Amino acid sequence: MADKYGIVTGASRGLGAAIAEELAREGYNVIITYNGNAAKAEAVKARLEKAFGVRVETFKLAVQNEEEIIVFRKWAEERMGKDLHVLVNNAGIYANVPSDKIESKVFCDIIDVNVKGTFFMNRHFVDLMIANHFGKIINLCSAVGLRAAPGSIAYASSKFAVRGMTQAMALDLGQYNIQVNAIAPGAHKTDMYWDAVKTDPVLMETRTKSCPLQRAGEVTEMCHLVRYFLASDFITGQVVSPNGGTTMV
Q1: CA pair distance 165, 172, nearest whole angstrom
Q2: How far apart, in Å, do the first and last CA atoms of the chain sit?
């Protein structure tokens, strides 16, 4: 797999870094993007290169900025070539604010990153997969993209949109042998989870205990789904939700 590569957005820490590790473990070269902390991104790069002997590149990117993505698209092809096999749209932001209190800017910022950012990445990289007649796209959704939770008006709106985007893309791109799926995690011990715990520990404790398994998931447990999507060539348009039973479909 020396020439094949994957891209993981928002991969300097947490779930994104774990997904990048999963790709590296499977032998993919990887581009990881980050928006804020270059040192953490470089640390992930060094760790993956040492552990798996693959090539890892880092790129600073605000996914909500289409002009930056156009620059990134050109850079990625120059650095890694045209053989893009996997695109994981992980970058996202979160806020827990009730509908009657949320500020318009907060709502729009979440839509910009979570929805527009996912769309921009897919729109500007899918041509590489079409040319190869092969590709796997994994969008990060959320359990609240299946059923909203209190205070989730912005985040739920964004993840319901990602869910619809995933299904629409699967219909459009299947003819090119491109699979498009989504992971819709419930509470997992990511940086976003711990930030939410700090903000409202009582709420997070209540939500965690309300799920049948009565715990938050480990990040590594979610990565098993990434491995499955990489291995399967006959699944598309699916939104799989590891959530401890909080939402059952």
Answers
A1: 10
A2: 36
The residue ranges of the chain whose pLDDT is under 70 are 1-2
3 state SS of 61: coil
Give the integer Cα–Cα distance in Å for 84 and 29: 10
- Structure confidence at residue 74 (pLDDT): 98
Q: Which strands make up the sheet holding 29-34, listed edge to edge?
A: 56-60, 29-34, 5-8, 84-89, 135-140, 178-183, 239-240
pLDDT the model gives residue 214:
87
3-class SS at 53? Answer: coil
Predicted local distance difference test score (pLDDT) of residue 228: 95
Out of 155, 176, 193, 228, pick the active-site residue. Answer: 155
* 155 among known catalytic residues: yes
Question: What pLDDT score was predicted for residue 1?
Answer: 44
- Mention every residue, 6+ apart, whose C-beta is less than 8 A from residue 65: none
How far apart CA 52 and CA 91 sit, in angstroms, is: 24
Report the pLDDT value the prediction gives residue 3, as an integer from 0 to 100. Answer: 85
Strands (E), 17-121: 29-34, 56-60, 84-89
234 exposure class (CB count in 10 Å sphere: 0-12, 13-18, 19+):
exposed
Q: State how far the Cα of 24 lies from the Cα of 29, in Å rounded to an integer.
A: 6
Report the 10 Å Cβ neighbour count for 127. Answer: 13
The residue among 171, 173, 197 whose CA lies nearest residue 123 is: 173
DSSP 30: E
The pLDDT value recorded for residue 123 is 98
Q: Give 166-199 as a DSSP string.
A: HHHHHHHHGGGTEEEEEE---SBSSHHHHHHHHH
